Amino acid sequence: MFTETIGIMLYVDDVLAEKDFWSAIGFTIQNEQDMMGFPSFEMKSHPESNTVFTVYAKDFIKQVSPEVLNNVPSVLFESNDIEALQAKVAAVTDTASLLQEQPFPNFNFACPSGIYFAVKGI
């Protein structure tokens, strides 16, 4: 049977730049490790979240699972203070869009590796 935890794997160019970025916008960084000479870490959007993102170097994935290297997730986060979160993300990256009201309050941004994420206001 499946557990209550969901894991999402992100394949990135620069693991350390990603760690700095996600930490700066409020993610909890945990379980940093070295895998076959490549840095890796897990992170959560909230300490109590049941969703865990594991960040791997693309060069590591090329060695162990090249068939999944180009899989890019489409992830939608939720925020109960979307205005403050948009401002926080925009202070860290110039890829943060302006806050949109349609079809619901939202914005998007890219991490240092160019993967885009969306945020929905609740």
Automatic annotation (TrEMBL):
Q: Known InterPro entries for this protein?
A: Glyas_Bleomycin-R_OHBP_Dase (IPR029068)
Q: What is this protein called?
A: Glyoxalase-like domain-containing protein
Question: The organism's lineage?
Answer: Bacteria, Bacillati, Bacillota, Bacilli, Lactobacillales
Give the source's domain of life in one word: Bacteria
